[in-house]
Inverse folding.
């Protein structure tokens, strides 16, 4: 499949060959029907993103192209869900693979049921278990715990949302249930259904990796001080050859609990 499906792409290429599309059933989007002036991309049909044109305040960051366009697996988003994503992790970076030597990989999720994956991706033999249930509490003042069930991520939005909630699920009362203090704060999604080259390894197609980069990392501290990701990610967290990856931060911001000097 084409990597970047843009505003004017027609899904019917008329070539009549190549067998079934490995991205069939994933997010699709008829951007030509939209009336906004944003730039739209959709890596292999698994990561619809949009970016509005630069204005007098400078360039705009990328954001998820949420329903009604794209991300069919998520269903329509409520205003509250949009707000939570925008506060936590709504500025993804296309063609970017986050990596730092001090990172901790929390989990990697992908469809490991196919024989082809088990044969070719020997460095990643088995997905972390999913579906999974995550239980969290919003704050010290909100005593009710919420449990959500998550399937294996199929899109970069699914991956980012899972990162956001995973951090909430391990937040603790002594830290005022602040999701910035522990758990996932960076995610990497392989948009190519056929796999993504990562150094000498190949990550499984449509795989979602949740990571924790320490808060005292200088690049994380730089990101915490930023008001926006419009200038791109900190260079020290970007690995070479990230063309088929999309990465992002979640819960990387200053709070009353994690204030940096």
């Amino acid at each position: 499949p084409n990597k970047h499906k843009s505003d004017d792409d027609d899904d019917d290429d008329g070539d009549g060959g190549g067998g079934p599309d490995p991205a069939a059933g994933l997010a699709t989007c008829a951007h030509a029907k939209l009336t906004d002036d944003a730039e739209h991309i959709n890596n292999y049909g698994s990561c619809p993103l949009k970016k509005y044109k630069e204005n007098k305040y400078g360039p705009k960051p990328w954001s998820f192209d949420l329903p009604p366009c794209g991300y069919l697996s998520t269903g329509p988003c409520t205003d509250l869900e949009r707000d939570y994503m925008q506060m936590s992790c709504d500025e993804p970076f296309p063609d970017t693979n986050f990596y730092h030597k001090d990172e901790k990989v929390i989990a990697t999720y992908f469809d490991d049921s196919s024989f082809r994956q088990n044969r070719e991706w020997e460095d990643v033999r088995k997905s972390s278990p999913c579906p999974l249930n995550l239980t969290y509490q919003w704050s010290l003042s909100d005593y009710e715990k919420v449990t959500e069930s998550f399937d294996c991520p199929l899109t970069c939005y699914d991956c980012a949302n899972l990162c956001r909630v995973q951090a909430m699920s391990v937040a603790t009362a002594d830290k005022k249930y602040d999701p910035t203090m522990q758990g996932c704060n960076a995610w990497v999604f392989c948009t190519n259904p056929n796999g993504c080259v990562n150094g000498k390894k190949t990550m499984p197609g449509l795989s979602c990796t949740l990571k924790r980069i320490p808060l005292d990392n200088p690049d994380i501290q730089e990101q915490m001080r930023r008001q926006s990701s419009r200038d791109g990610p900190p260079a020290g967290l970007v690995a070479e050859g990230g063309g088929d990856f999309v990465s992002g931060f979640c819960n990387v911001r200053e709070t009353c609990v994690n204030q940096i000097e």
Q: What stands out?
A: Residues 156-169 form the longest helix (14 residues). DSSP finds four helices and twelve strands in the chain. Helices lie at 79-88, 115-120, 156-169, 218-225.
